[in-house]
Amino acid sequence: MMKSLTVLLVILWLQLSWVWSQQKVEQNPGPLDVPEGVIASLNCTYSDRSSQAFYWYRQYSGKSPELLMSIYSNGDEEDGRFTAQLNRASQYVSLLIRDSQLSDSATYLCAASTQCSPDTCSLYPNPLGPRNA
After folding, report:
1. What's the CA gap between 56 and 66, in Å, rounded?
2. Which three-class secondary structure state does DSSP give residue 3?
3. Neighbouring C-beta atoms of residue 1, cutoff 10 Å
4. pTM score, two decimals?
5. Strand order in the sheet with 92-97
6. Could you tell me if 23 and 51 are in contact, meaning their C-beta atoms sit under 8 angstroms apart?
7. 23 within 8 A of 120, measured Cβ to Cβ
8. Quick one: residue 62, left, alpha or beta (phi over 0 = left, psi -120 to 50 = alpha)?
């Protein structure tokens, strides 16, 4: 019998730019109950067309969020079992987790930035940790 994998999806808007924005982000779906071995799909929509960079973080219970993936242009960005997909025309970013495993049970966070690009900024790997000036 296949074990059940619970993936809690919580998408937060983490404002990573220096200027406050009226950005609106919505999550779909909410908490997921995913059997092991299948593809889990997490989606995030955003309202600000000037968003340039998108980030997926994973947070295990009782731990700080860690940067999982980033994507800067339309299409797919793969890293092992994880794929980030960006569609600027539809204003959504998705995270696909192939061959889901019990160790994938975590809170997943979606973030965007209007002022970062691959050549102009880098993120501290823990968004709740100290920033270097």
Report:
1. 9
2. coil
3. 3
4. 0.69
5. 25-28, 40-46, 92-97, 82-87, 75-79
6. yes
7. no
8. left
For the record, the structure tokens of 99 come out as 């061959």
Structure-token pair, residue 89: 């025309």
> Could you give the CA distance from residue 52 to residue 88 in angstroms, rounded to a whole number?
10
Nearest one of 69, 99, 65 to 86, comparing CA atoms: 69
Cα–Cα distance measured from residue 51 to residue 86, given in angstroms and rounded to the nearest whole number: 11
* pLDDT at position 13: 34
| Phi, psi of 104, deg, nearest 5 | -85, -5
Structure tokens at 98: 């192939």
Query: Both tokens of residue 41?
Result: 């799909």
Question: Over the stretch 23-76, which tens digit does the pLDDT of each residue have?
Answer: 566 666 678 888 999 999 999 988 888 888 889 999 999 999 999 999 999 999
